[in-house]
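Action item from last meeting closed. Structure (216 res):
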């Protein structure tokens, strides 16, 4: 991979953790695109304090918007930067094909690809393979089907109370650290071709079964 790295953040815990990793590793992003979607006021306050008050982010271009709009898409398309780490608002999907084709929109997917695609795939991974994986990909128009940068496999935790909020973010943070430290050495490659398997939003019973499998 070539060039600098920018980041797109919104008002969620994942974005807050991502920004703190940049600071801890002393890796300045070229730009920060901040989607102030007005959700989670406590997180919002912390994120604004980081990007607007911390000295680390001085002289870094901050593009501000209330939502992921056409204005942001046009800004990204005009930008000289090619590489953007994504931490979008929950449920936000990028559908602009030109943006997907011309920019490297980097996403950390909590599941080994191409086997486990779709939302909450971490639960299905636990049920089918009794494993937790995280894939770092460049987004494409196909759901979780973009070129693969790297994958990491994680040991099962002895205790797990909050997969969605805590453990999911922890494995993505590991991938972000690895990405920032090894960015220039990474080479995107197509995913293996298999019959499509999309795991949609896991029902609470499926989530409970996955957690019970860890405990067993």
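Sequence:
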């Amino acid at each position: 991979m070539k060039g600098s790295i920018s980041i797109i953040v919104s008002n969620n815990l994942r974005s807050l953790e991502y920004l703190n990793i940049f600071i801890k590793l002393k890796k300045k992003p070229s730009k920060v695109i901040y989607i102030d979607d007005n959700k989670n006021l406590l997180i919002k306050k912390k994120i604004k304090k980081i990007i607007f008050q911390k000295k680390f982010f001085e002289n870094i271009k901050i593009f501000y918007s209330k939502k992921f709009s056409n204005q942001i898409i046009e800004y990204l398309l005009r930008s000289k930067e090619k590489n953007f780490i994504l931490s979008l608002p929950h449920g936000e999907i990028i559908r602009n094909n030109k943006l997907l084709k011309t920019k490297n929109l980097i996403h950390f997917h909590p599941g080994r690809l191409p086997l486990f695609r779709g939302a909450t795939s971490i639960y299905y991974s636990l049920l089918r393979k009794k494993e937790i994986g995280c894939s770092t990909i460049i987004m494409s128009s196909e759901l979780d089907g973009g070129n693969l940068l790297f994958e990491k496999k994680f040991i099962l935790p002895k205790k797990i109370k909050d997969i969605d909020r805590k453990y999911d973010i922890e494995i993505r943070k590991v991938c972000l650290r690895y990405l920032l430290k090894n960015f220039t050495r990474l080479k995107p490659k197509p995913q293996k071709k298999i019959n499509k398997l999309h795991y949609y939003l896991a029902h609470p019973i499926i989530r409970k079964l996955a957690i019970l499998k860890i405990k067993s």
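Note appended to the action item: Residues 163-182 form the longest helix (20 residues).
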